[in-house]
TrEMBL record:
Its EC number is 2.7.1.33. This is Type III pantothenate kinase. One of its GO terms (biological process) is coenzyme A biosynthetic process. It comes from Nostoc flagelliforme CCNUN1. Catalyzes the phosphorylation of pantothenate (Pan), the first step in CoA biosynthesis. GO terms for molecular function: ATP binding; metal ion binding; pantothenate kinase activity. The gene is coaX. The active site is at D119. Homodimer. Belongs to the type III pantothenate kinase family. CDD domains: ASKHA_NBD_PanK-III (cd24015). Substrate binds at Y113, G117, I118, D119, R120, T197.
Amino acid sequence: MKPHKHPEHTDNIWLALEIGNSRLHWALFVGETLYSAWDTDHLPESVIQQLAECQTLNDLLEKIFPQGESLTNTLPLCPLFIASVVPSQTAIWQIYPNTHVITLNQLPLTGVYPTLGIDRALALWGAGKTWGFPMLVIDAGTALTFTAADANEFLVGGAILPGLGLQFATLGQQTGQLPLVEMQNFPSLPPRFALNTTEAIQSGVIYTILAGIKDFVEAWLQLFPNGKIAIKGGDRTLLLNYLQVLHPEIADSLIVEPNLIFWGMREIVMGDSTDGKQ
């Protein structure tokens, strides 16, 4: 994402970090405005220690921002707000000064259960507060998840299954004779009834995932005919392209937004900031 504008109010600058199963997802905010968002690989503890020793925000961004973002060297290190689904990484990142780990009990969402992933909860909260409840969020990431809340911002529930890449990897690694099908953007849907093993794996994984999405969307709309549906995650574009071919009415109804978790984090961070001024 391209920078929105050059940050000027240093007291309103804050970093958001979503620690996912596969990657780190970053966002730089100026107040409520998303200035830039980007991804990096997980970082070793030695690199995180170096980041913790940075003296300015510019020093920090030079190490983690892929396009070599440059800000005024006088900007101090800003607060870092973390949402993590990887406990071992969460612990390491707390060596960074001014770190705030967002937890479930900070979300106004009601009816949550203790083991609900903070990533699912924040994405749902961000989507609902942006586009309104009832809201169903589909996260097409390492895991494919469905998470929903009703018009009263009460958790309806959801589901979790292995995502596209994980399903391909599992078949390749846990079976004796099936090949490892690399996760990639297949240009078109495979034949449903395949005549070779690789395409048979593609068919089995892709068509059942699409059927599952269709089933959950239809069940959701039966419960909440006016409910909204948002999709995020690294496989969102690929799945949307497939849905557009098989079920265009579903594809056209989806709100596509990769930054849902950051919208949820913004609600928490700016809400706390407002509360602190009262």
